[in-house]
Each structure stands twice: as structure tokens, then as C-alpha cells.
Amino acid sequence: MDPISLILSALVAGLAQATGDVAAKGVQGVTKVASEEIQGAYNHLKKLIKDKFAGDPKAEMVLEEYEIDPETYEAPLKKKLASNGVDKDSKIIKAAQDVLDKTKEQPGGQQIINQTQSNTISNIGSIGGNFEFKPTQVGGSGSK
User: Could you state, in order of their start, the residue ranges of all structural domains in the chain?
Assistant: First the structure.
């Protein structure tokens, strides 16, 4: 997965977990401790992005609006992430992967990740270009 798609997926997955929107999507079993852990990782990712956006009020606004309406603000946020070099920042990429890893560890977490990645891929397809989907996997035994 390219860095911008990774970051967008992490923002949506982290927001869904951190705000409790998971329950609204019919996914149950997220513990309070896990939610706090994911929220902490999500807040860290968002802070790193905001720091990178410092001095670009439009980018800051797009990030805030993305939380409210990810579908509408995905394309503008992609542009701002790229133009501000967020997709080249290894700390931000690592923080995004951390959000996805923490989300994945939770009951229903993989479902949330799959949905956010599917939505991101769909939106990329509507914009155009070639997209090669390669899920990011870090360690672990994989199957149950």
C-alpha cells in the first residue's frame, strides 16, 4: 500500500475505533483499554500530521474536515499530504502503521481495516491512475 493510502486508512480506522463508531458499524467487543490505546496512537498520528501542516492553514482545515466527512475531503487531503511531504515522513508512516496494527489486534479490527482500505482503493479508482494493493503485514502468526 502506498504511504498516502496507509495514512488515510489509519486516520479512518483510528477515528472509527477512537470515537466508538465501531459499535455503530456492528462490530462489538472493543475494550475500553484497547480503545484508549488506539485513540492514543491515532492522536499521535494526527499530531505528527498537524505539525507537518504547521503554517498551512488550508491543510490544517482539510485534516479537520476529513474527520467529519472522509469521503468528501479524501482527495483534498491526499493533495495536502503529498504537497507537504507527509508521505515521505518515516515517523508519520510508522505512526500510521501503528494505528492499523493496534486496530487489527482488536475484535473486528481487521474488518475495519479491510473496509477503510476498500473505500480508499475505490476512491483512488475514481480519481484515476494505477494502484497496486499490497497489504502491509508486520510479524505475527497470521492465521488462527
Answer: 3-123
